[in-house]
Write a structure and sequence with these properties.
The protein is mainly α. The chain has 53 helices and no strands. Pfam families: TPR_CAND1.
Length: 1053
């Protein structure tokens, strides 16, 4: 902005016309926001002077805009003028005669501090140092309440923004804050309370203790002054919230005092604030408040029922008398016969605070059984509460109890998300597995038994609470029910009729959110219950669900289809006889929705999945409608937007075990595969491959028989790369299926084989991808496809890549070795024998590390997959070749590869090679680490067949004895030993876990640390049979934290 323009605006700021003044300030603000203003020293001074004068402008609009402009301008000022402007505002606050002037100056200073973001690199900390003494002085001397409120806000913001970067050693700050905490005006007391809490958060430990001790003394001092006592109790709560880790040292004194206050005081508002402190103690310092749990629990239990102005009927048979009057238009809970005013009754605040405190206790006290015994029945009983907001908090408390119980259940027993997965058929929750899981542990069983015992009364109370017209309470009932069925499946199936009234009312409610909560509950309910459990009560509800499938709100329509899909899956997994009328209704609804073109994409996709679920579940009963339904889905493959969901739906159908044919659509569906695989859309490729695999694996009519698959197979090579291993895995699996089942329909296989050989070069090919690659090679070797290379030529194609590699990659060498062994398994022993002798020569005489590493790994993998090649009289002795690589002159990588190869040999022939390894461990101490590593390979590898597995199990004792003797070896050896011990314990925990405990009691600290590390290898995220025994001995191993030797505590932590 030019200097002429600046001068013009400054002149207009002094105009007698308020509009000129207003527009001048507005233009300056816009220039500041756009950073288009340039100010020299004179203009800047004039601008500051005019803006400070306009704070006293007689026009309120000009004043308000002036405050905003000042808060923007300070960010453009260099340090001297910035200090001058802020100090001028502070001086105006203190010295102005008119209250309005002091007030507007305080607001301007507050806005300037809160929005401070200097463009001149002025530190906010320096601003605080400059202003704080002046602000403290104002607080100490000012009697203007509105100004004091603003100053307290400013100081609180300063504390929050600077954190502990400043020491805040300002004279009188403590006294000023405590002085205003005792103000007669509530607003000032509240702001002083907030400032004290923030101040306590940023000061050092010594100053923090001074503040907390003073707050405690004030609490004791004002025991007879309710208003000030409430302020200091609330201050305690705020300090605990902001600084829980430091406050816990002082917490016992406050807890005892507040318990005393609650027991003595009859004032509801004081008890509310005190119970709020208890809640914060549990949330922020749960360990420190643990000794007072019982006393606090007694208080909140008593006060949860504190309602002196209302009489409840405790009879369950008369629950309707306690419910909300349905004729009440506003959904209030007032008792018509009572003559008290709700404005006078604040007891609900006490009950609400008690409910929240109970929730905090439940969340942070881990004794679930005690929580159920102490609070469960009480909370259910108190759901008859007349105040809706209190009732919500009571439900939240019980919800916390259920959610804490849910944490006991691993995802493998009950998935955390029970939404129907569009990519595969919904898997039924096994109640047998669930019950086994509960019964594994006595304490766990007691918890679930306590919950199960309370479910009937909980359902009755919820059913009664659903008679309210308060939507928040209704929503909360469905949230609670949803949590219940995900924690305890099959818990309310027979009670569905009791809930049907509330469900129907909510489904017909005008509130869209209410419908969503209800539909989500129904979807979860269907997913966690067998259809036989609720068959008699569901027909009263499903018609309302069907109606909502056409709701104008797309989210409601989507959730309705989700619930229907979940119902279909529940019906499919049930042995109950189906109602033909209900099946017809579902089919007609899905077909009619499927054929609608102008609807939300999410609804369209879920409808498509629903049709897939329905055909998959009941396709054998559709008759002539089946082909029509399949053709509709196949047609959707032509539409770019809908083809993804159509592919998933067809995959669901193809995986069905029902007896129906897909033959009518297989040719048209297959014709799209090549095109879809060429597209650079990852999701489309995955869905296409998944469908192709599902059709290829299909044993019912409607697979790839007689279909031209060349256009699909020819696209597989481009998918075989390590940039996307998931797609590579699927493509390899599909290629293996097609080569095995339809070798005459797929065209040339050599391009795929070449891509597979190149893929083995990648170090990333491991796990499932490696397994799929070996599966393809195994199938290819045994198939009758044409132009297959001879065994020697095949091996040569793998080996020739070694000489061209520019970097060493043992994982890639291992993949190549496994590939060669897989190919060898499909050939005669006499064909493979010459290869073993060549490998022996390479290991003993080759010059390069790469070719030697590949050769020794191949020798090991041949022993794993083709042990017969070493059983002939003319066979080489692979164990001696492996041990020859342990010489000190050999490279470390070659030694590790040889160790792995020795373990692989033992996997294939445990009777021959295990004794050799154990003997070597005893005799060759210098090679002990490598030999133990070979045992690790034997223990952690999957056996080739059931016979070898049985042999391994019969030799576990021998292996255990061979390994346990090395528990005090060197550190590198001990870590491998510990892993082996942990894995062996998992195989027979009853026998070996006590032995591991004995090891932990050894006087040798190295043995103790090995036992401790072994326990770490036994701990898994998923439930395992050893869990129950492991839980019993874990406390013994936790004692390792106190071990005098430094290594053991480290492993214990």
């Amino acid at each position: 902005m030019s200097s002429v323009r600046n001068a013009d605006l400054i002149e207009k700021m002094t105009s007698a016309d308020k509009d000129f003044r207003f527009m001048a300030i507005n233009d300056i603000m816009e220039s500041l926001k756009n950073k288009s203003i340039t100010l020299d020293d004179t203009t800047e001074n004039q601008l500051i002077t005019n803006l400070l004068k306009l704070l006293d402008d007689p026009n309120a609009e000009v004043q308000n805009l002036d405050v905003k402009c000042l808060s923007l301008l300070v960010n453009y000022l260099a340090q001297p003028r910035l200090y001058f402007t802020l100090e001028a505002l502070g001086k105006k606050i203190f010295e102005a005669e008119e209250e309005n002037s002091r007030d507007i100056a305080a607001i301007a200073l507050r806005s300037s501090i809160i929005e401070f973001n200097s463009l001149k690199n002025v530190s906010f900390n320096s601003v605080v140092d400059r202003l704080m003494p002046q602000l403290v002085n104002v607080l100490a001397k000012s009697s203007d309440n509105s100004v004091n409120e603003q100053i307290l806000d400013i100081i609180t913001h300063m504390f929050r923004r600077t954190g502990n970067k400043l020491e805040f050693n300002y004279d009188g700050l403590n006294d000023a804050l405590f002085k205003h905490a005792e103000s007669e005006r509530y607003g000032i007391r509240r702001r002083a309370q907030q400032a004290l809490a923030m101040y306590a958060e940023v000061v050092d430990n010594d100053q923090f203790k001074i503040i907390v001790d003073r707050v405690y003394k004030c609490c004791k001092k004002y025991m007879s002054n309710s208003a000030l006592l409430k302020t200091y109790v609330a201050t305690t709560t705020a300090i605990c919230k902001n600084s829980g880790h430091r406050f816990q040292q002082s917490l016992p004194a406050f807890a005892e005092l507040f318990i005393q206050i609650c027991n003595r005081s009859q004032e509801d508002e004081l008890r509310e604030v005190t119970i709020g402190s208890f809640e914060m103690f549990f949330n922020r310092s749960p360990e420190a408040v643990t000794p007072y749990v019982e006393e606090i629990s007694k208080i909140v239990i008593a006060l949860l029922s504190h309602d002196p102005n209302y009489s409840y009927d405790d009879s369950d048979n008369e629950e309707d008398k306690m419910d909300i009057d349905e004729t009440s238009a506003d959904g209030s809970d007032d008792d018509e016969d009572s003559d008290y005013s709700d404005d006078e009754d604040v007891s609900w605040k006490v009950r609400r605070a008690s409910a929240k405190c109970v929730e905090a206790i439940i969340t942070h006290r881990h004794d679930l059984q005690k929580n159920y015994d102490t609070f469960g029945k009480l909370l259910i009983k108190r759901m008859k509460e007349r105040e809706d907001n209190v009732k919500q908090d009571i439900m939240n408390a019980y919800l916390a109890l259920i959610r804490q119980t849910r944490l006991l259940i691993p995802d493998s027993i009950i998935p955390w998300s029970l939404r129907v997965d569009s990519s595969c058929m919904y898997e039924k929750i096994s109640m047998e597995t669930f019950n086994e899981f509960i019964n594994e542990d006595d304490n766990r069983k007691k918890v679930f038994d306590a919950l199960n015992e309370q479910i009937p009364s909980l359902i009755r109370r919820i059913s009664s609470a659903q008679k309210t017209k308060n939507t928040k309470v209704l929503e909360q009932t469905f949230i609670l029910l949803t949590a219940l069925v995900t924690t305890y499946p099959a818990s309310i199936g027979t009670n569905l009729p009791q809930l049907s009234r509330g469900i129907k009312h909510s489904l017909n409610d005008r509130d869209g959110n209410m419908k969503l909560f209800t539909l989500r509950f129904l979807a979860t309910f269907f997913a966690t219950h067998d259809y036989t459990e609720y068959q008699s009560g569901v027909e009263n509800i499903v018609n309302d669900v069907f109606k909502l499938a056409g709701d104008f709100f797309s989210k409601v329509s989507s959730e309705s289809i989700e619930a229907i899909n979940s119902l279909i899956c529940s019906m499919a997994n049930s042995s109950a006889s189906m109602n033909p009328k209900l099946l017809e209704q579902i089919y007609n609804l899905l077909i009619s929705k499927f054929q609608v073109t102008d609807m939300d994409q999410e609804v369209k996709d879920k409808t498509t999945y629903g049709l897939g679920f329905f055909v998959s579940s009941f396709g054998d009963s559709l008759g002539s409608q089946l082909d029509n339904c399949l053709s509709l889905l196949a047609d959707r493959l032509n539409n770019e937007i809908s083809r993804q969901s159509a592919l998933k739906a067809l995959t669901i159908i193809a995986r069905s075990d029902k007896d129906f044919s897909m033959a009518s659509v297989i040719p048209s569906v297959t014709s799209h595969f090549g095109e879809f695989l060429r597209k650079a859309n990852r999701t489309l490729r995955i869905n296409t491959l998944s469908l192709a695999i599902a059709i290829a694996e299909r044993t019912k009519p409607g697979n790839f028989d007689g279909v031209d698959l060349a256009s699909t197979f020819v696209e597989i090579p481009i998918l075989l790369c390590d940039t996307d291993l998931q797609i590579a895995q699927l493509a390899l699996h599909l290629a293996a299926l097609l080569v095995a089942q339809h070798p005459q329909q797929i065209g040339p296989v050599n391009p795929v084989l070449e891509a597979v050989i190149i893929l083995t070069k990648s170090a990333l090919v491991q796990g499932k991808t490696q397994k799929a690659l070996l599966e393809f090679l195994d199938v290819y070797t045994r198939s009758d496809v044409g132009s297959k290379p001879e065994f020697r030529e095949f091996v040569g194609q793998f080996m020739e890549y070694v000489t061209s590699w520019k970097c060493y990659s043992r994982p890639a060498f291992l993949t190549v070795a496994k590939s060669i062994a897989t190919v060898a398994r499909g050939n005669k022993v006499s064909t493979v024998l010459p290869l073993t002798k060549e490998l022996e020569k390479i290991v003993l005489k080759a010059q390069t590390l790469e070719i030697k590493t590949l050769s020794i790994l191949t020798i090991g993998e041949l022993g794993r997959l083709c042990p017969a090649v070493y059983a002939e009289k003319t066979s080489i002795k692979p164990e001696e070749i492996a041990v020859s690589c342990f010489k000190p002159t050999c490279e470390e990588d070659l030694k590790m590869s040889a160790s792995q190869a020795l373990g692989s040999l033992a996997v294939g022939n445990i009777q021959r090679f295990l004794p050799f390894i154990l003997t070597q461990i005893k005799e060759e101490s210098s090679r002990r680490y490598l030999l133990v590593y070979a045992l690790r390979e034997l223990i952690t590898s999957d056996s080739v067949d059931a016979a070898e597995q049985q042999l391994f199990l019969s030799n576990i004792d021998t292996i255990w004895q061979g390994i346990i003797t090395q528990a005090n070896a060197t550190e590198s050896t001990r870590i491998v030993v510990a892993e082996c011990l942990g894995k062996l314990c998992l195989m027979n925990p009853e026998k070996y876990l006590p032995e591991l405990v004995n090891c932990f009691k050894s006087s040798d600290n190295l043995v103790r640390s090995s036992a401790l590390v072994a326990i770490r290898y036994m701990i898994s995220d998923k439930p395992i049979p050893a869990d129950a025994l492991l839980m019993k001995v874990l406390p013994i191993f936790f004692e390792g934290v106190k071990d005098e030797n430094i290594d053991t505590p480290i492993f214990g932590e």
